[in-house]
TrEMBL record:
The keyword Ligase does not apply. GO terms for molecular function: carbohydrate binding; DNA binding. CDD domains: PBP1_ABC_sugar_binding-like. This is Substrate-binding domain-containing protein.
């Protein structure tokens, strides 16, 4: 009896209760409410609440938006699932590289999958993340129509979601302010027309990404508004949207078709939703031998476009850098904050930067 009393003197009751709760959560594959933990553990509700909040603060437990709790560390690294847009898209690969480096530096385990610019593949990857039991999903995919289904798959499993560039239900948005980056691209095009063409413009093309939905399309809306803020005399009927799908070949094809139909037009401004589209527009421009009468501004500042802008007289006169190297650290920080149960803004914007051809040429 004396020996049993001595052993109990060395026990810490609240620590024992905390371990009971941790073991209970470890046996659950789905989030569980405070009330359910209280009923099953027979620990006072006040103690359960304080223990859970401590676990959340220390990163062992995540609290879902509905208030339920799930174990995220046993203890082990937090495990994030990241589905990249496409390994063939330079900006997507830059984001993936930044995220890999940030995860390694932060001790977060990162499970990477490629959405291949395809809705069915994105759905497959989302289901795999659920099966693997990741603690948080970062989704980067282009198809707006599949976003609700992807979000449903992930939300039903009680897994928090961060969506890059394309809003998803139940997700925290991360990316650029699409309208603003478009507006600044439009201002660049207007400045070119003012300085080089004495404000004379025959057509303005917006190379859109229709399947990405209205938010990404607002890059082109913003470009048109930015252009007309400096050139208000440009008529609405001169502003034409073409669906380049954010891809080089498609963009080259639709711009080539437009140029063939308007062979006598001298001055054309092109705002591209992505630099990959901008390169497609460049290809069509070169093929038509119209480099002197077309000006192009892209988005993302991928290496190939930066190199192109170093060339004197290149039709690509600028691009808006989305600062892909900053995505990784900020996404990891945002994910950890969410898993620790803290409130985050619904929209988390990255900083962007205007890069012009003259800036690139001066840096040589």
């Amino acid at each position: 009896m004396a020996q049993q009393k001595i052993k109990r003197l060395y026990l810490i009751p609240i620590l024992s209760k905390a371990l009971d709760i941790l073991e209970l959560l470890e046996g659950e594959r789905r989030p569980i409410t405070l009330e359910a933990i209280y009923q099953r553990s027979h620990i006072s509700k006040t103690s359960v609440y304080r223990i859970l909040k401590t676990f959340v603060h220390r990163g062992y437990v995540a609290q879902s938006p509905d208030g339920s709790y799930r174990l995220v560390s046993r203890p082990k690294k937090m495990r994030f699932g990241f589905a990249g847009q496409s390994a063939e898209m330079p900006f997507s690969e830059a984001v993936t590289s930044s995220l890999r480096a940030a995860a390694a530096a932060s001790g977060v385990e990162l499970m990477v999958r490629d959405n291949r610019y395809d809705a069915d593949t994105a759905v497959k990857n989302a289901k795999e993340f659920v099966t693997e039991g990741v603690d948080l999903v970062i989704e980067f995919q282009i198809e707006e129509h599949v976003a609700p289904y992807l979000a449903h798959i992930i939300s039903r499993a009680g897994i928090p979601l961060i969506a890059i560039d394309i809003p998803h239900p139940h997700a925290s948005y991360f990316g650029v302010d699409n309208f603003q980056v478009g507006f600044e691209a439009g201002e660049l095009l207007a400045q070119h027309a003012i300085s080089k063409w004495k404000k004379k413009v025959d057509w303005v093309l917006g190379l859109d990404v229709a399947e990405a939905g209205s938010l990404v399309q607002s890059r082109i809306t913003g470009a048109f508004e930015g252009l007309r803020s400096l050139l208000p005399e440009i008529a609405e009927e001169l502003l034409i949207r073409l669906d380049g799908r954010g891809m080089r070949e498609t963009s080259a094809r639709v711009v080539s078709e437009f140029l063939r139909r308007h062979a006598r037009s001298d001055r054309i401004l092109i705002a591209a939703a992505t630099d990959t589209s901008a390169l497609g527009a460049l290809q069509a421009t070169v093929d038509a031998q119209r480099e002197k009468t077309i000006a192009i501004v892209g988005q993302d500042c991928i290496p190939e476009v930066l190199e192109e802008m170093k060339k004197p007289q290149s039709p690509i006169v600028g691009s808006i850098s989305h600062e892909a190297h900053t995505y990784g650290p900020r996404l990891i920080q945002l994910g950890v904050t969410i898993l620790r149960g803290h409130t985050v803004p619904p929209y988390n914007y990255v900083q962007h930067r205007v890069v012009t051809a003259s800036m690139m040429q001066e840096s040589e």
